[in-house]
Amino acid sequence: MALQRTYLDWNATAPLSEAARLAMVEAFSLPGNASSVHSEGRAARAAVEKARRQVAALVGAEPAHVTFTSGATEASNHVLTPDYRMGRAPVTVSRLYVSAIEHPAIREGGRFAPDQVTEVPVTPSGIVDLAALETLLVNHDPASGLPMVAVMLVNNETGIIQPVAEAAALAHKYRGLMVVDAVQAAGRIALDIDALDADFLIISSHKIGGPKGVGALISRGEVLMPRPLIRGGGQEKGHRSGTENFHAIIGFGAAAEVISEDLESRNGRIGAFRDALEQAMLDAAPDVVIHGLAGPRVANTSFFTLPGLKAETGQIAFDLEGIALSAGSACSSGKVGQSHVLTAMGLNSDVGGLRISLGPATTQTEIERAIAAFGKIAGRRKLPGQAA
Predict the structure, then answer these.
(1) Does residue 304 have an active-site annotation?
(2) What is the pLDDT of residue 1?
(3) How far apart are CA 85 and CA 81, in angstroms?
(4) Does the pLDDT of residue 388 top 50, yes or no?
(5) Which is catalytic among the residues 131, 331, 361, 383?
(6) DSSP H or E segment with residue 12
């Protein structure tokens, strides 16, 4: 009898939603290029603009301010640049202040030189240190150019919700720009670009049940915009050239529309599953460390360390039990290493952490399977001081 699989890695990627699949199937019947002016082209353009409205609605933005990209990594490299334009006038951003727990797509600094990037520490609870951020901004040299602050809304490993609006207030107090990676927040908490006070917001299709290979950079306005990363035919109002990834964009829009439905009740159900799972883990292994347990977290994420069990070993063990989970970020194929998030929190990251992340389709039966697998794996590990 084949082992029944349980997918608990929704933060890495969400399974394609039925709404996205159906929208994409329908889009395959549209042959036109969205940049063409004939009837077929106009039909394709109408479908793209519908998706733009759907994505904009997810974050409370204007549709005209949504730029489709190949994903969150491209959006990050697009917006993280020293080279901005206000109309035709150049504007220099001289330094990027990035939190220590950002996804690698942000931590790498985009088009900033390494010596233009300053890391902002986080507290032991995994929350960006606003006092440290303000100290850095106070000491920023405004004559060199504008400061830019990049803080993610929800950490991809711990699920901790960051005080983005407060960080944005500091960025704007010192005449800077605020970039928010909302990839793990979309579909899990309500989003409003104005309430967050963000100048730019980044989201990704495949995290919310859309197809892989498409994302969006969303701006609050278009007065001050980054120099395009990809130049050519001038698609996306000149912000991102290249023929649109048409079918993926249509699926992205459909996923964005359905993921915003019934958010509160869905979070209540998923949160109850997560809490039951964590309590069962603590009952089975009282020494398990659940990171971010006391902080504000999204409902679907649990990031934990089992003493005596390295992350890579644990991930393989769970996989053999039929449970798909992650050892932190799934940003590099097959790569399991120390968690920079745990390091930033001042914790020993040598053994790493394991992340379980739930989604709208997660069931009680799947939680029970995960609890059973955890109990078996926790019981097999060799703890320090135990005889061989």
Answers:
(1) no
(2) 63
(3) 11
(4) no
(5) 331
(6) none
The pair of three-digit structure tokens given for residue 44, joined into one six-digit string? 């394709």
Q: What is the token pair recorded at 201? A: 């917001």
Beta-bridged to residue 106, according to DSSP, are none
Structure tokens at 338: 């120390």
Q: Say how far apart CA 119 and CA 79 lie, in whole Å.
A: 17
Listed in order, strand segments (DSSP E) in the chain are 6-7, 66-69, 83-86, 89-99, 117-120, 146-150, 177-181, 200-204, 215-219, 224-226, 289-291, 301-305, 323-324, 354-357
* Mean pLDDT, rounded, for 26-42: 95
With contact defined as beta carbons under 8 Å apart, do 252 and 205 qualify?
yes
Measuring CA to CA, how many Å separate 377 from each of 37, 157, 307, 308?
60, 21, 12, 11
pLDDT reading at 71 higher than 70: yes
Percentage above 90 pLDDT, the chain: 89
Confidence (pLDDT) at 14: 98
Categorise residue 68: left if φ over 0, alpha if ψ from -120 to 50, beta otherwise. Answer: beta
**pLDDT for the residue numbered 352:** 83
Q: Tell me which amino acid residue 269 is.
A: R
Q: Is the dihedral of CA 226, 227, 228, 229 positive or negative?
A: negative
| Residue-wise pLDDT tens digits, 152-199 | 999 999 999 999 999 999 999 999 999 999 999 999 999 999 999 999
Per-residue pLDDT for 355 more than 50?
yes
**What is d(CA 331, CA 118) in angstroms, rounded to the nearest whole number?**
22
Bridge-based pairing state of the strands 66-69 and 215-219: antiparallel
